[in-house]
Amino acid sequence: MPPRSARTSTEAPRLSLRAPSNLTRVDDPVLLDGEHREGELYARAVLDAADLAGITLQECLLQGVSLDGTELRGARFLECSFEDLFAPVFRASRTSWRETSLRGTRWGSAELYDSRFDAVHLDGGKLDFVNLRGARLTDVLISGCIIGELDLTGCTATRVALQDCTVGTLTLDGARLRDTDLRTSSFRTINGIDGLRGAIIDDAQLLLLAPFLAESMGLRVEA
Fold first, then answer.
1. Which InterPro entries match (predicted)?
2. What mean pLDDT do residues 92-110 have?
């Protein structure tokens, strides 16, 4: 019988997301930095290279929107839905995301460092490089994504799950993980193996991680 203090289960992300409804469709939107927009639908809009730093979108739906090189530093996305978001360069450092879903996302380089994610679902995207250095992730589910490189250096993650994802390089230097479930996902390379403390993996992943764990401990494995 385990000690009373032992933890015997994993807490999954707590999500109860609802799609925005009763929206006003806005064609050819003109959005300004720092403004607050609520209850709007943007479909197939091209907002490339716009300066939208500090903007707040609340209960909005963005479908097929292009945000290549758009400045979103410090923006806030509250109870929003993003579908087929496209951005070879996604500039969104220090942003806040709350009760928001992203589906079919296509990002080349995503600058999301020092951002905050609370109750967010990222589903079915193809992402080349995701920079989440110093970010705070709480109740986040990433599912069915292909990610070239995921950088979680200095990240704090609580109740985070990667489900059925394929990740090329996972970087975890200085990461602080709690209830972070990596089962069912695959990784080609992991940097900062010490940052895995607090993660949950399966038996197959443990075998694949063995060489990295041995290297981090200075072990020599010889037949």
1. 5peptide_repeat, Pentapeptide-BTB/POZ_domain
2. 98
